[in-house]
Specification:
Helices cover 40% and strands 24% of the residues. The chain is of the alpha+beta class. Strands 1-2-3-4-6-5 form a 6-stranded mixed beta sheet, with helices on both faces. The protein has a two-stranded antiparallel sheet with strand order 7-8. A two-stranded antiparallel sheet has the order 9-10.
Length: 253
């Protein structure tokens, strides 16, 4: 925002700030895949796919995972701070999802383009399914499905590709301060990683362990005319059920 106010709009730069972010993110995804001992065929394209005379789509991030090709539209946005910004942000998400779906469709018709980018045989790539996603640098809209395309938070995608488990909480002994992390297994093999990918980004454990605990409560709202007005507020309930049992089993002894 400061750069734009100073006259350095992204359109005036030879290398857009978005391009720099996409390049950096691709390198972190490649590193995550490389250190994942569960993967054998997974791969991330080294560079973006640039539009050419015979393929008029530019693809930010291309990943092969198991039996699928992930076609990602990568976005770096400010987190919306008020109602109007949230309204505008949903519009940007819809536009990004439309782009991702269009690019996945174009790539499905041109497996040779994906094969060159990833270093696989065209015949092998032709047999893979394509999955469009929008990757955002922050969590607003995370897990939403828009026109068949999921919104995925960048950190979770990188974490998912780096290993088969994620730390989604911790138990703390208030007396000793000892901390026992709560590690959730996402997958064991690359095949499982591909099979579970879409269900996990639809309901990521790091997000829904909070979403599932949100409860609506009615409370009175003061009125100048003495009328009894009730409004709905939302609060986060305590952990229960399976998560509470898991916490108790992993608690420090």
């Amino acid at each position: 925002m400061w750069l734009e106010k100073g006259g350095l709009d992204d359109s005036t730069l030879k290398q857009h700030r978005g391009d720099s972010y996409e390049s950096e993110y691709r390198s972190t995804v490649r590193a995550a895949i490389a250190r994942n001992s569960s993967f054998s065929n997974a791969r991330c394209a080294d560079r973006e796919i640039k539009a050419t005379s015979d393929f008029n789509e530019q693809i930010d991030l291309l990943i092969r995972l198991g039996d699928m090709i992930i076609v990602a539209e990568v976005k770096c946005w400010l987190f919306p701070a008020d109602s109007f910004e949230r309204f505008q942000h949903f519009g940007k998400l819809r536009s990004a999802a439309k782009q991702a779906v269009r690019k996945a469709t174009a790539l499905r018709a041109r497996p040779d383009v994906a094969a060159r980018a990833l270093g696989f045989d065209e015949a092998e790539v032709s047999a893979l399914r394509t999955v469009p996603i929008v990757v955002t640098n922050q969590g607003f809209g995370f897990s939403l499905e828009i026109d068949g395309c999921r919104v995925v938070e960048a950190a979770l995608l990188r974490t998912y590709l780096s290993g088969g488990s994620v730390v989604a909480g911790a138990n703390i002994d208030v007396k000793t301060g000892q901390i026992v992390p709560m590690n959730f297994t996402l997958y064991v093999t690359e095949k499982q990683a591909a099979e579970r990918f879409e269900s996990i980004i639809a309901k990521p454990p790091l997000l829904y362990r909070f979403v599932d605990r949100i409860q609506p409560t009615l409370m009175p709202f003061p009125s100048l005319i003495g009328a009894k007005t009730m409004v709905t507020i939302f609060h986060l309930a305590d952990v229960a059920g399976e998560e509470r049992l898991l916490s108790q089993m992993r608690a420090p002894t």
